[in-house]
Design brief:
globular; eight-stranded mixed sheet; alpha/beta; binds 6-O-phosphono-beta-D-glucopyranose; 33% helix; 13 helices; 513 residues; 20 strands
Length: 513
């Protein structure tokens, strides 16, 4: 299928520029700031979407005053696909500052407050603040509390009117189970009101994820078949070929279920399964997502599979098993792979299984949603298979979230020739072909939305608690029942045999990706 961008491309909102502001990143010495956040901010600058009066302040414990801005510049160039002599780059880097402090040191917050006030004077940032919590999660509560204690969490009000805005972006992981997520919500809500809080999930910044909603609700034809009458089952795969990349201590306490399923995969699931919202307002979209999660009955341990990779080969190179990774317990029970079967007990989806799998060190990096439709009701062409032709197969719609972003619809076509032979063919839309390759990393949209105060693509308190309510009982059941078959898949393969067996009992197979 050839795809051209129509000249009538619909723009949902006219481009808006945020108010002047300072983005303050706590935990700025971490990888995320250099690899993702600063490149994303610079991409916004390149597109003219940042306010003219703008500054970034990195906050962390180490004394990095001299090296921080040059290091960020390097990150923008290498991680953001930016040429080093671009005209906008040096002026942008000139607006990056660094402030060293301990996150539990009151004096540090006093000093930070003064730094920010000085920047307001110098750059005209008008008291508007976006505090980005990118530290290890154990510091979130402290930082929020100190910001509150130091009068930095609320806008200044004059004559009953707010003179500026203050918002906070909270990185994942948002809690490690239902109870801790609730506790964190309570801590943050004591200081910031819900409309100041932006819980980020970078998957929602991905174009292909937002496009799920456009595909479903911006087109007239798909919603009619998007239900239990036409759909046989749905698969969501979030496969990575990388291992844990030196993050042993973090991953040991996380595992695939907490790291990826509770957030990224659950977000994908809600976009696939939600009802059309009455508008694209944050409250309308978030309410529909929560309804999906709440309609999922508790997931029985028999409908779950955990796995852990052993040594194997990835991209032709021998790699160690999870238990041999640095700072990982040699008998670790942490899962690097999780698969679930669940149902959504509502009018649209009752009886349609959703199969989810996510893992590290799998065959390749691919995130994909597969919708498999039912076979036609009458098998008119049941003898239509032949040499290399499969005959009638169910239609499959694949939404490729990454890489090779796009959508493919597979259907049967008559093979030319004197006999009635049917083969499957693809109707394919490729993002890169239609719109060109993009160097955006997903954070651009989310940072911009937070600066604009638009929470549509951020998680609400209710949503976070709803997804943890589904995941926590599984974590508890697994913790009570350690398994001695780990590791149970070799790095570079497609996960444990038990995951295949789970689908086999339903007469199905994971789609080969
Ligand atoms: C992060 C997880 O949230 O998402 C990582 O902590 C994972 O373990 C990453 O690798 C995947 O993100 P992406 O955008 O590369 O699919």
């Amino acid at each position: 299928m050839s795809t051209n961008i129509s000249s009538t491309a619909a723009v949902q909102q006219p481009e808006r520029t945020p108010d002047p502001c300072i983005v303050v990143i706590f935990g700025a010495s971490g990888d995320l700031t250099k690899r993702k956040l600063l490149p994303a901010l610079y991409h916004l600058e390149q597109s003219g979407l940042l306010p003219k009066d703008f500054a970034v302040v990195g906050v962390a414990r180490r004394p990095l005053e001299k090296s921080f801005a040059p290091d960020m510049k390097e990150g923008i160039i290498s991680g953001g696909g930016v040429e080093k002599d671009e005209a906008k780059l040096d002026p942008f880097v000139g607006r990056i500052q660094y402030h060293a402090m301990n996150f539990d040191d009151a004096a540090g917050y006093d000093a930070l407050k003064k730094v920010l006030a000085d920047i307001d004077k110098k750059f005209g940032t008008k008291g508007n603040r976006l505090f980005y919590l990118a530290t290890a999660p154990e510091y979130f509560s402290d930082i929020v509390k100190y910001l509150g204690d130091h009068g930095m969490a609320k806008p200044e009000v004059k004559d009953g009117e707010a003179k500026n805005w203050v918002r906070t972006i909270v990185e994942k992981p948002f809690g490690h189970d239902l109870e801790s997520a609730k506790a964190l919500n309570n801590e943050v809500n004591k200081v910031f009101s819900e409309d100041q809080i932006f819980r980020i999930d970078h998957y929602l910044g991905k174009e292909t994820v937002q496009n799920i909603l456009v595909f479903r609700f911006g087109n007239g034809i798909f919603e009619n078949v998007w239900n239990r009458n036409y759909i046989d089952h749905v698969e969501i795969t979030a496969a990575e070929s990388i291992g844990i990349e030196g993050r042993g201590p973090f991953y040991e306490t996380a595992g695939a279920l907490r790291d990826v399923v509770q957030n990224h995969v659950m977000e994908l699931l809600s976009f696939v399964a939600m009802e059309p919202p009455v508008s694209f307002e944050a409250s309308a979209v978030r309410a529909e997502k929560v309804k999906v999660w709440k309609a999922i009955p508790p997931i029985h341990p028999a409908d779950t599979v955990r796995g852990q990779y052993g040594p194997g080969t990835v991209d032709g190179k021998a790699v160690v098993g999870y238990r041999q990774e640095e700072r990982v317990h040699p008998r670790s029970q942490t899962e690097t792979y999780a698969a679930l079967r669940l149902e959504i007990d509502n009018w649209r989806w009752a009886g349609v299984p959703f199969y989810i799998r996510a893992g590290k060190r799998l065959g390749k990096r691919v995130t994909e949603i597969t919708i498999q439709f039912k076979l036609p009701p009458q098998m008119l062409f049941k003898d239509a298979q032949g040499k290399g032709a499969e005959g009638i197969q169910p239609n499959v719609l694949s939404m490729r979230i990454q890489p090779d972003e796009g959508i493919t619809l597979q259907f049967g076509a008559k093979v030319p020739g004197p006999t009635m032979t049917i083969s499957k063919v693809d109707m394919d839309f490729s993002y890169a072909e239609a719109f060109g390759k993009s160097s955006a990393n997903g954070y651009e949209r989310l940072l911009l939305d937070a600066m604009l105060g638009d929470a549509t693509l951020f998680a609400h308190r209710d949503g976070v608690e709803a997804t943890w309510s589904l995941i926590t009982p599984i974590l508890e059941a697994w913790a009570k029942d350690p398994i001695n078959s780990l590791p149970n898949y070799a790095a570079g393969t497609w996960g444990p045999a038990t995951a295949d067996a789970m689908l086999k009992t339903d007469g199905r197979k994971w789609r080969k990706l």
